[in-house]
Design a protein that fits this description.
By secondary structure, this protein is of the alpha/beta class. It is built from 10 helices and 13 strands.
């Protein structure tokens, strides 16, 4: 009886210790400030959001936003090239601290990472040659289309495409654009800014906008539970919206304003 009593008391005391122990503090922001650098996942094959310039240094809208965040935090920007398939795994495995890489928000992604407020406009659409008549999604039947695997446009395309549309998926955006430009496919599903740049560089394809897939602004990806860093980055974005910095970035790199970005 005595041993049972002592066992109960010991169990109760252990429970009280657990209840009184402080919850794990969110040190996401303090860690970045302490190491005096922040690893930012950026695109380098996705103009005008991120690409290598003539000096072999990354540039573009996302690169500018990434640098802005580092500058406002007062730390060094460690720019890490990422691709569409690896950017979320890189964040989850702590190879980077933030994703600043034309990242759209959807329900599946929200299960595994958190998002800041939007910082730039982005919409996905179907583009094709002027000679090809496409007025609705039914007209895609029997056609071939290039898309980057795992992107928002890939997801939406699967939902709206007729069964006879032949979807060819590629691992990165350069390969997707190259397939369309070389006429491996008749159409391409991608971001408007990316398509515009492809058309500018390859006027012979005479491509034009056909169908809107989704209006999906860009957000910055943050690891789950890192609320302190998320709040700080949100504050930086809000200030950049207020003082016109984001508007200037959009005009420079996209040739259009930011519009009404969701928060």
């Amino acid at each position: 009886m005595k041993s049972r009593f002592l066992s109960c008391v010991t169990g109760l005391l252990a429970g009280l210790v657990l209840l009184s122990a402080p919850a794990h503090a969110d040190d996401s922001l303090s860690k970045v400030l302490a190491k005096k650098s922040i690893a930012l996942g950026i695109p380098t094959d996705f103009p005008p959001y991120g690409f290598m310039g003539p000096d072999f240094k990354p540039q573009g809208l996302d690169v500018a936003v990434a640098q802005l965040i580092a500058d406002k935090l007062g730390v060094k920007a460690e720019l890490v090239p990422v691709s569409t398939p690896n950017r979320i795994p890189y964040l989850q495995t702590k190879k980077i601290d933030l994703i600043v890489s034309a990242l759209g928000k959807n329900a599946e992604r929200q299960k595994v990472i958190d998002f800041t407020i939007a910082y730039a406009p982005f919409y996905q659409a179907v583009f094709g040659p002027k000679a090809l008549t496409i007025k609705n999604f039914a007209d895609l039947g029997g056609k071939t289309i290039a898309v980057t695997r795992g992107t928002i446009q890939d997801d939406v395309l699967q939902q709206v495409a007729p069964p006879t549309l032949k979807i060819q998926r590629f691992e990165d955006d350069n390969s997707t654009v190259a397939a369309f430009v070389s006429q491996q496919t008749q159409l391409i599903a991608t971001g408007a800014a990316v398509a515009a740049l492809a058309v500018q560089k390859n006027p012979q394809i005479e491509a034009e906008y056909k169908l809107l897939l989704k209006d999906s602004p860009n957000f910055i990806g943050v690891r789950k539970g890192e609320q302190a860093l998320l709040d700080k980055v949100n504050a930086i974005i809000k200030q950049a919206k207020t003082d016109g910095t984001l508007e200037a970035y959009a005009q420079r790199w996209l040739g259009r304003g930011t519009g009404n970005l969701p928060e």
